[in-house]
Amino acid sequence: MDSPASPALQRQVASLYQAESRRVLATLIRLLGDFDLAEEALQDAFIAAMEQWPRDGIPEQPRAWLVSTGRFKAIDTLRRRARFDASQEEIARRLEKDVPPPGEEEELEDDRLRLIFTCCHPALPADARVALTLREVCDLTTEEIASAYLVATPTMAQRIVRAKNKIRQAGIPYQVPERQELNERLDSVLQVIYLVFNEGYFASSGENLTRPDLSREAIRLGALLVELLPESEARGLLALMLLIEARRPARLDHQGDVVLLEDQDRSLWDQDLIRQGTALVERALGEGRFGAYTLQAAIAAVHGEATSADQTDWPQIVGLYDVLLRTSPSPVIELNRAVAVAMRDGWEAGLKLVDALLDDGQLDGYLPARAARADLLRRLGRHQDALRVYQEALTLSHQGAERRLLEKRVTELSSVIPSSL
Amino acid sequence: MKYLCLIYVNEDALERLPADERRALHDSARVLRQQLRQHQRLHASGTVACTLTATTLRYRDERRRIEPGPATEGPVQLAGWLVLEAAHLDEALALAAHLPACRLGAVEVRPVTTAEETP
């Protein structure tokens, strides 16, 4: 009879699971060619470890043991299914025949990259890419992902199932893209990571403004990507996330309300993250093949080194926005540039730009544009106009803490404006 | 795997093109098909006549209804199709990317099986 796993061994297996389960899964998906089969095989392999290791001791190469055991367990699973579905027997035979050579370390690291690229394949819907990446690469449970995105668990489960079905049926390959497609495909990976980060930092709905767990996962993913694929833009994105994350302690006041960048207590900023982020930006900029994430990170780094809003190098920030607009034009970036111009040249100059952008119509339903306009009007002392625009902005807000900030401004202004007006 | 590429173009925009440009377009599509065939990547291909020729059939309340035009309306219309052989989606997409319709309209890529292969 097997001896039961001692608590010490259980702890060892648990920490091995933490450290290795995604690597083992990534390799099993390549060997088995199927996400679900690989996930089941991974669980079976760890169950087998808990049964056998107390008796036989921990193998010298636990990861290789887990991969090989998982593969055999998958063949067993297929054999069992073959009793009901003869086609499974053929797959089992093929798997049994193709004994994989003991993987080179490099190949195994590539498996992790394959997993990331497959989960972030642009042929999958954006929300499914996010869900699948969090499930498969980050090992969040479906329940955790569902609650982070405030959707029902069955809805999230269905999203993941559909994505896996598409991978299987459409023949989405498990591979790192060829060089000529790498940039396009990397964009999709970076976008998924940044979406996860943003959902964690600026929760789009609900009463809580941030969900730090998601931001932490995004940073871990970003760091893993930089480790596996040291591209400049991957570094730029990691830098951007670190530099934004550094401000988290100052971002909300004790009531949980938003504190705007210029009002934040900068002594609360995490200097260690700022140093790491700034070093990464400098490196990415130095490599010369950077893009929008690196430029945004550079802007965040300029903020990071300033002791106050007034002390900020606004001319440099406006200059960086100019470069950013050339490489990736967008009305949202124009808006940010307009706010930087206001800081550099005065409120009137900024308001002119914001008004032109709003007249253009592209930012019609975009709350930060209304809020920026209202803010500039308020600073210019045009209280009546500011009040009206804050109220417009409120009609666009669905987020608790964001609404409270706007409502605070409305209350402040209402008390300043004589009631006879 | 076999991938069906559905070629969509905007019929009006295609109509408005100068005759020589339209011919050049058809020529480049033909050359591409030849190349695909030489590399044994093309199972079959064909064109679909314009939507003016389309007739849509539906049974509703036990009655047959015949209507002019395509079943769905959109900014682009089905104009042709190819069945490609590719190892996986990325390969199929790389092949389909050479179709002139990608620039002009859109190409939808889907895995297909032929009736005999369907389990």
From TrEMBL, chain A:
Domain DUF6596 residue range list: 185-284
Domain of life: Bacteria
Short name of one Pfam family: Sigma70_r4_2
Transmembrane region(s): none
Domain RNA polymerase sigma factor 70 region 4 type, chain residue ranges per copy: 116-167
Domain RNA polymerase sigma-70 region intervals: 16-83
Protein name: ECF subfamily RNA polymerase sigma-70 factor
Organism whose genome encodes this protein: Alcanivorax xiamenensis
